[in-house]
Amino acid sequence: MTKKSHAATRTLVTIAIGFTGAALATGTGLPAGALLGSSLAAFLASCFNVSGTIPPSLRIVAFAIIGCSLGSGLTKNFVSQAMHWPLSLGILTISVLVIMLIGGWFLSRFFNLSPETAILSTSPGALAYTLSITADGVGDARSIVVIQSIRVMGLIVVLPLLLGYFCTNEPRGGTGENVVATMSIAGFVVLFVATLGAGRWLELLKLPSAYLLTGTMISAVAHVGELVSGRPPALILFIGFALTGTAVGSRFSRISLGEMRRLLKVSLIVTIGSSSIAALFAYITSSILSLSFAQVFVAYAPGGIEAMAAMALSLGYDPAFVAGHHLFRLGLLFVLIPVLLKILGTRLQT
Q: Each residue of 254-289: pLDDT tens digit?
């Protein structure tokens, strides 16, 4: 078997494992079952070295599907709800600063990580951006990948279970209504193809989360213009969630067990600490604006935008609110990270 065919076989095995986990978790009624089950199954397969990685083309498919669904969150009450966003975004900004400053200080003080590595490891999202910075020789790339990956994985596995158990009586959706209609197959195909084309253009411009962003924007415009209505069919959403979870879980196939064991403690501290800080600020925001705590927490949670957006859809929370806050935080990190690194005395190459 050639190296190429071996890699293809491992990819197919990984997808099969991920989709099996997604089906089992969904069948048992777990919250965000497709996302949770696929990520956990792929993670376990990675630990036993029986899986490969998900190719970029399939990740693009997953993120485009999720983006097309996120745009359906623009309802008639969207504008009135968005009036509350400036305060919520301001509190989110404070939350991100607190997470990075306290987390960065803690890791460098008690775990002997360099200040640069500590800041990039505690960045709540924007993994691709942080890795592009490490490529310029800033920080320890392997430590950053392990800590960030375990945090995202932990959030995907634990957060839906906690919210499902403690927040079952909270209202779903910030607008007071959920989109229950199903988009036509033809409508979805048009949105999906347009997303792939526009996403490719944004990708060439080096914009992060290009396909998720374009899918959300194109779907939003189509929904506001009443060209389409509802979310993609359930099977298509299942595929998007399962592929996203599998991509997250399979990320560990490139990380040795020794490396994970070495950084497990610090990763768990970062995950629990950053999530606790996010929960505190989410509680403040939900109390002031009379919003669902669970919805605000998912919007503030220190995870990757694709995974958190998929979780919001799976749990029935307002997708526009959650995606809007994660996109804002992504832009915020683009500004904050270079500033914090410069304060630490690090010069980024231009």
A: 777 777 888 889 999 999 999 999 999 999 999 998
> Using an 8 Å Cβ cutoff, are 108 and 115 in contact?
yes
Q: State the pLDDT at residue 168.
A: 57
pLDDT digits (tens, 9 = 90+) for 121-160: 999 977 777 866 776 677 887 888 889 888 988 898 888 8
The answer to whether 192 and 212 have CB atoms below 8 angstroms apart is: no
| Amino acid identity at 188 | F
Rounded-to-integer distance, Cα 350 and Cα 204, Å: 18
For residue 232, CA distances in Å to 19, 36, 70, 190 come to: 19, 20, 10, 12
DSSP state of 350: -
Q: Which stretch of DSSP H or E encloses residue 123? A: none
Spatial CA neighbour of 130 closest among 153, 149, 155: 149
Which of 172, 176, 179 lies closest to 229 in space, CA to CA? Answer: 179
Q: Encode burial over 218-257: b for 16+ CB neighbours within 10 A, e otherwise.
A: bbbebbeeeebebbbeeebbbbbbbbbbbbbbbbbbebee
Angle, helix 185-204 to helix 210-224, in steps of 10 degrees: 140
Predicted confidence (pLDDT) at residue 297 exceeds the cutoff of 60: yes
Question: What DSSP state is assigned to residue 206?
Answer: T
Question: Tokens representing 313?
Answer: 């859809």
**Helical H runs in 205-256?**
210-224, 234-250
Distance CA 130, CA 133 (A): 5
